Amino acid sequence: MNRIERKFEKLRSDCRKGFIAYICAGDPSLTKTRQLILEFERVGVDIVELGVPFSDPIADGVVNQRAAERALRNHVSLADVISLVEDVRKKSEIPMVLFTYVNPVLKYGVENFCRDMAAAGGDGALALDYPPEEAAEYKKLMDAHGLATIGLIAPTTPAGRLRPIVNFCSGFVYYVSRTGVTGMRDHIDKGVSPMVKKIKSLTTKPVAVGFGISNPQHARTVAEVADAVVVGSAIVKKIEQFGAAREMVSEVGRFAGRLARAAKSVRAERQR
Description:
It is a single chain. This protein has one domain (3-264): TIM Barrel (Alpha-Beta Barrel). It contains twelve helices and nine strands. It has helices at 3-13, 30-43, 62-73, 78-89, 102-108, 110-120, 136-144, 159-168, 192-200, 216-223, 233-242, 248-264; strands spanning 18-24, 47-51, 96-100, 124-127, 148-149, 152-153, 173-176, 207-210, 228-231. It has a nine-stranded parallel β-sheet with strand order 5-4-3-2-1-9-8-7-6. It is globular. The two termini are 19 Å apart.
């Protein structure tokens, strides 16, 4: 098992739900990103998703787009993000997943990416626009290097594609709680619960739910049906609010801690 699998195994053993925090690497700087990851671990975040800055983030809402733009102005590349993972790994065992588009991976070289991610101590990747049907070599190389391949299922995913996506996934399955791009919303879609149940009927892998989760109440509601809750835009918005201020890391960490505690307040059924 890699760190992601071990984390979910521990959560199951403790009858707890997980919390996953997304941030864009390099926003407002790579140094601050490193500090945030370590602070997230301290306040109870279970897994960190590190966004790889990309110039055309078609699945991201305006908050995450602005974060990517700020990171790109800092000239942060995929190689820099992998180096950041390696640096964090010297201090922490928190699972880290790269949230990326396929273009940077192809430009870097799929084999190089898998090799370097594994060597740096990374745990997996979510390549948003890499269809499982076209990713056989990527999947093979990721598996060979012990890296999780995480795929997205959306409310609009055709029923016939659910099983191929689930089979493609390792580590966990990521369910997008609503249609559209990332971003904060006022409510959680009523379709989340039946869709998560449908996914769970196809797999024993953990199901994480993200997109649109903005506050502790949202996190608690989603944790009632999911194995883990993913929050990105609401956290990134806090980073944007504080920028490079001295208190940014502690304030963002405090917010992430409240979200994590809300998700973990929901007890999970003990697995037989």
